[in-house]
Amino acid sequence: TTVDELKKLIENATIEANTYEFPTDARKFEAKDDKIIELGSYDFVIIGGGVAGSVIASRLSEIRRWNVLVLEAGKVEESEFNEMLGYTAFLALSDLSWGFSSVPQTTACLGFLNQTCRAYRARGMGGTSLMNGAVYERGMPSTFDEWAEITNDPSWSYENVLPLFEKSEDFHLRNPNTPVESEYHGKGGLLNVEQKIPEDFVTSLFLEGQKELGTDIVDYNGRSQLGASIFQLYTKNGRRQDVYEAFLKPVKHRRNLHISTESYVTKIDIHRLSKKAKGVIFTRNGKTYRVKSTKEVILTAGVFQTPQLLMLSGIGPRDHLQEMGITVIRDLEVGSKLKEDPICQALYITTNITKITDTLDQRLQQFLQGEGPLTQAYSTSGVAFLKSQFEEQNYADIEFIAASLEKSEFDVRYAGWKNETYQAAWGDNTNAIAINIHNVNPRSSGTVRLKNADPFEYPLIDFNLMSDPEGHDMEVLYEGINRVFDLLKTPSFQNINPQYKGSPLPGCEDYQFLSKDYWYCFLRQTCTAAFHVRGSCPMGSDPDEGAIVDSRLRVFGVRRLRVADSSVLPTSMSGHPVGTIIMIAEKAAQTIKYDYKSSQ
Ligand SMILES: Cc1cc2nc3c(=O)[nH]c(=O)nc-3n(C[C@H](O)[C@H](O)[C@H](O)COP(=O)(O)OP(=O)(O)OC[C@H]3O[C@@H](n4cnc5c(N)ncnc54)[C@H](O)[C@@H]3O)c2cc1C
């Protein structure tokens, strides 16, 4: 590829992003008549070819006598534009995007249009890894020990899941300054993991400042996540390598694997009396099909559409299903414990750094060498996982992400800001360092519910961020703000004369500027969803306590149906979920092989 060809791709994507209208439903998948075409049967039918679905399909199709069908609503996406992480945000405003948003919120996202938080998810083989930041992170080892306790199943302990993390990974140390605990990393797996090079000024500054505050510089995927680091990314030579490309594309020609794209599943067919999943109904190109599963249906449609499909198929909270006119097959608290992290990305710090102005041609040349700013998303690669004073165990609950930013119209569109809030947050600045504050272990939770029984309507997503009655999540975020100001006082940061020059935000004028009450108001206006949503169908040992799947990822009370995506995370994992979702998918495949006595 040449620089000019890449420039053309950028030009087209910019036009699309600036004119893109978010869909509000999935009606484009609707069939033109009521006829159902019978398609025969497969051993396994996987719903959704996203992060988890791609991994599971890859592993199950290793068994040659098993036929595996993947049904994915999107397409196979192979544009080189998608590989430039520097343009990640543009992908959310393209046809890759489902375009979800939350229902109007009262406790967060107040500075965003209609008081809603964006809830981006991608469609296409590879799922949301097609449009995400490609950060590879596993959380704290003790998280998995807690999962082993919650599920009463020691196979989830860190000691037991570490080999599965390692199995997927092919780790490459590109930045020799970063500490790496190699005994925690895999070599030769399907997912390339590396760091962006070269290290940029803001990242180095951030790490120096953290050191001056006494923070350890660590391998956050090693013994302990706590400390400051450079992001590990699942890119390959600086290019996005989505999970389909890593796990499924190399084996897509297997004769026992069938990938059906543009196939939108509307229902899981479950026998009412035996409560056995028999197959699924889906639409494709205006027609409706039924396909049977002789072994299992595996649901990996993501954190919003997995619970939506369960509820449409009669598995969900009894009252809600009855209200929607859906026959109840199994009363379970599907969608009742949705977890999302609040992130505040509006603390813009002015400095005396002269902006480095590489031309687009130079940046593209660097990209073609596998280096430079276009090989990372959101201009960020410095990160710190920290413990607030409110964290009683040994988990990180604050994550800082350092970014070098410019004020832009595009940001307003991408995040859905109210223009006046965005302008006030920037004050008179146009360039800044932002230290994003991310509460990675929140107590608040929300819900996913159906709007009605129509499968072509979008689900209702209510994040309910920062709403816990004790106010814990707000206190953690407020501590985050204070700790940013501590960072600005370090000698390294003092060298660049950092100053906060934001103006009072609309809606917060009644509070004394920069007082605790003001910052509380600021947080409610500017915190939004971090896109690390999980837990809408949590794993556990007791359905009466809200668990939807058991430790083998089988839906309670329904046979031959598993859920194995971001929906099943039973707790926060203090960070970025893809690494863990891949591990869960590896474990699901391993469990299924074991259950059908076909391990290899
Ligand atoms: C902008 C953004 C940045 C992010 N950055 C990071 C990051 O840097 N690191 C990280 O770890 N995480 C990140 N995440 C989160 C991460 O990408 C998701 O948590 C992860 O992709 C979820 O995986 P999944 O398998 O559960 O679902 P998905 O990957 O979303 O896959 C679900 C698939 O199911 C398909 N599907 C849905 N409904 C149907 C249906 N009815 N019929 C057929 N197919 C269907 C979808 O089209 C999709 O392909 C980010 C997310 C976003 C939005």
From TrEMBL:
SUPFAM superfamilies (alphabetical): FAD-linked reductases, C-terminal domain, FAD/NAD(P)-binding domain
Keyword Acetylation: no
Alphabetical keyword list: FAD, Flavoprotein, Signal
Name of the featured protein: Putative GMC oxidoreductase
Organism the protein comes from: Chrysomela populi
Gene3D superfamilies: FAD/NAD(P)-binding domain, Glucose Oxidase, domain 3
Top-rank lineage group of the source organism: Eukaryota
InterPro entries: FAD/NAD-bd_sf, GMC_OxRdtase, GMC_OxRdtase_N, GMC_OxRtase_C
Cofactor: FAD
Ranges where the Glucose-methanol-choline oxidoreductase C-terminal domain occurs: 442-585
Active site: 532, 576
Residues where FAD binds: 128, 132-135, 265
Record GO terms (molecular function): flavin adenine dinucleotide binding; oxidoreductase activity, acting on CH-OH group of donors
Domain Glucose-methanol-choline oxidoreductase N-terminal: 42-341
Similarity field: Belongs to the GMC oxidoreductase family.
